[in-house]
Known about the structure:
Blueprint lengths: L4 E10 L2 H5 L7 E9 L3 E5 L6 H8 L7 E6 L2 E2 L6 H7 E4 L12 H11 L4 H14 L15 H13 L5 E5 L7 H18 L2 E5 L3 H4 L4 E6 L2 E6 L1 H5 L2 H6 L6 H11 L11 H12 L9
Helix pairs in contact: 4-5, 4-6, 5-6, 6-7
The site of magnesium ion (MG) has 3 residues, from α2.
Amino acid sequence: MRNENIINSIDVEYVYPSHFEKVDGTKALKxxxxxxxxxxxxxxIGRNGSGKSTYARLLNALLLPSKGVIYINGIDTKxxxxxxxxxxxxxxxxxxxxxxxxxxxxxxDTAFGPENxxxxxxxxxxxxxxxxxxxxxxxxxxxxxxxxxxxxxxRVSIAGILAMKPECLILDEATAMLDPGGRKEVxxxxxxxxxxxxxxxxxxTHHMEEARLADRVVxxxxxxxxxxxxxxxxFSNVEGIKAMGLDVPQVTELFYELRKAGLKLPEDVVDIxxxxxxxxxxxxxxxxxxxx
Length: 292
Ligand SMILES: Nc1ncnc2c1ncn2[C@@H]1O[C@H](COP(=O)(O)OP(=O)(O)OP(=O)(O)O)[C@@H](O)[C@H]1O
Ligand SMILES: [Mg+2]
């Protein structure tokens, strides 16, 4: 199955073994069908326990579907012989950078992935240099990773994944432990790799301000995909999003409240620049204003 999608998930269900045996057979995923195009930047949101991390682990073959099938570049994740091909194609970065550090220097840490893949040393050297350069961490290559800041550690984690030359980067709340500056640092790197290297990105986050920058936002609730579309489409459903215990970007919420208060605003917005443009038109009596 080779096509423009890097990921095809068909009716995927997952039951954790402990649930299956001891509890009630509760499915963490209840039939997820999702295709992701090469080069897409997808943000996945959903309340705690909705199944986001479970889905991410399935994409990396850390878990295998209980039912349904996932193809990564046409390869079924259940094909054991292709495990490394799958892990190489979809690289994962997790929430806590400290759990991902292995090496005693930044460059040693970055080399770990390609070493495991059996890449030859001169190529590893090239990849380590290029990856550290891509995340802006070259000057730290001889530093001890555990002494870096959180944002810098996460950039090193990303470099380690990039050194395996993945086609898809999965970030499972990789920005959750960072301050706004650290989050910005990491997101800028990832957005640039998406733009310039056509890296497919799947970014799981609880920060709605990060979601608005994606090509596509997928909302998971109780193991099912409940909304899927461009940020503006998804966040225009303010009440639906709130009913799932989630927030919308603040500026979207402001427009929602202003509308409720009776203001006729011409469009939905997800970022401040758009809001400024709308208010500018309103203030100067622009043509797009409805005044009934
Ligand atoms: N290792 C595990 N063993 C048993 N059940 C698990 C395990 N990991 C997750 N679950 C259960 O599976 C469901 C989905 O969990 P998952 O971690 O995928 O949610 P999530 O959307 O990533 O949540 P969060 O936003 O808190 O990270 C939850 O009901 C959770 O309790
Ligand atoms: Mg999670």
